[in-house]
Please model this.
Amino acid sequence: MKVRNEQSDILIIGGGAAGCYAALTLGEEYPGLDVLLADKANIKRSGCLAAGVNALNAYITPGHTPQDYADYAKADAAGIVREDLLLSMSEGLNEVTAKLEKLGLVIQKNPDGSYASRGWRNIKINGENIKPILAKAVLDQSNVKVLNHINIVDYIVTDGQVRGAWGIDLNNEEIVIISANAVICATGGAAGLYQPNHPGTSRHKMWYSPFNTGAGYAMGLRAGAEMTTFEMRFIALRCKGTIAPTGTIAQGVGAPQVNSRGEKYQDKYGNTTAERLWAVVKENLAGHGPCYLGTRGITLEQAAALERAYLNMAPAQALFWRESGLNPRDYNVEIEGSEPYVVGGHTASGYWIGNDRSTTLPGLFAAGDVAGGCPQKYVTGSFVEGEIAARAAAAFARQAGKSGIDAEVQETIVKEVEAFLAGNSEGRYTVESLEEAMQQAMDEYAGGIKSHYGYSESSLKIARKHIERLARLSDELRAADFYGLLKIFELRERLLVCRALIAHLAARQETRWHAFGEHLDYPERREDFKVFINSRLEQGEVKIIRRPLIEQESKEAVG
Ligand SMILES: Cc1cc2nc3c(=O)[nH]c(=O)nc-3n(C[C@H](O)[C@H](O)[C@H](O)COP(=O)(O)OP(=O)(O)OC[C@H]3O[C@@H](n4cnc5c(N)ncnc54)[C@H](O)[C@@H]3O)c2cc1C
Model:
């Protein structure tokens, strides 16, 4: 077994929006520190930004303040947010936007030169190339070394402190052991836990990046980090068949949701992100579906603008209109909900962190979709969190001093990898069969599409039993090569995230967010659940911890 050792002052795991921005910050502000960024893909086109985006969803337009943004996100999440995190994120949004524009991102402008906005907190960009722009800026930093195609599997923790991580190099088929004085986790959220709405051979056609498998959550759980609010799942309302975002149409041309009778129904259900999805579920159940975005009658210019916007992010939608002839001027656009995800950039799930993005494990920081408590951060919020985490990690690394990895730790890692490569798995289960079983169990018993996102105490118990059994079976999987190893590790991290998610869903005995957390035994909100549901893995069991909400002490002081 080939083993390679690497050393750095700061290790960044995941080179997406947050990880790349952290690397950029460390490159520009801390040239004396050695930085290593490891990504399982190639940072030029990895993570959520791989295909581009057509808007920066989080921006403070003139006449608004960071406090307005924090208030909006708090209301959308029915109060279960960390206001301190929301504010520190919101305060940096415009600065990181200006930085990206300087790096070459095209932001659409009004005739007077101001940014063209979509509503009060969202600006339009030509963002197909946002990831290559960001990657180039990182690669230009002389103190940042990028390791592509390294799938990080676990942290290395000694004496309670995170001192590095290990992973597998997919191209060179070797184990990589990286020691670092501080580690930033930026691996994004978790997709592929539930049966997707495109099963079969296209089951990886999903809204969220299918390569973000919840590795950061799983590593954190295994190392004993505290997590928060997994039970606030994110379910995307999307254009049917193409999974293209609906906000582009809803905000872009002001198209309302309508049912098959042509009725506008949204007011009956409320207008938060979760309620817009829930409205579709309810109308379908009432026999009023399918549901649509009412685009019929938009102008030629509006239709052309929509097509352009989708070409920057979800070209399938533009192609669908062209191929089918169902253009949005004459036909409303059908919408549906995706399967649920755990995504801290849209909801509040992830690591429980301090305002400096430090986790509960010394030496470990978290940013972007993997970090909890701060929903609606999107691309720009992930950049800001990357910047904050980078500065805090730099301060930590400087005082922590160099640390090495001892031989015993290395031996344990090699044994773990070798066990999955020993023998063959013929006649046993395959990764695919266990993954499908996991997705089916989650779909049927933990509130997937099949149950219209609802679950109960008894269904969650069944889900838990299935997931625990599948986790045990996954011990027996064997890989023929390093790609096979990657698939095994991905499945195992998804299974652990499922376990934690089920525990969180069961612990929140209320329905605070329709569909995102639809507890059928407790269909109403409950005052005694205005708390954070947190968790930690202790002796193999997910232990639930209730924490009070952290209210901002003085809005005036920070507004
Ligand atoms: C389809 C889609 C469209 C979106 N559209 C918009 C939009 O228009 N506007 C907007 O503001 N926001 C949008 N968002 C949200 C935004 O893209 C995300 O919030 C943001 O990219 C999150 O950044 P991140 O760094 O946390 O995750 P990512 O950018 O996904 O980066 C995670 C990185 O971690 C790597 N990784 C994962 N696991 C491992 C591992 N084990 N080892 C090593 N590396 C690993 C991945 O390869 C990836 O590079 C969209 C999201 C999606 C999915």
About this structure: Confidence is low (pLDDT under 50) at residues 553-559. Residues 13-19, 38-41, 46-49, 53-58, 151-152, 186-188, 207-209, 211-212, 215, 313, 345, 368-370, 378-379, 382 surround flavin-adenine dinucleotide (CB under 6 Å). The longest helix spans residues 482-507.
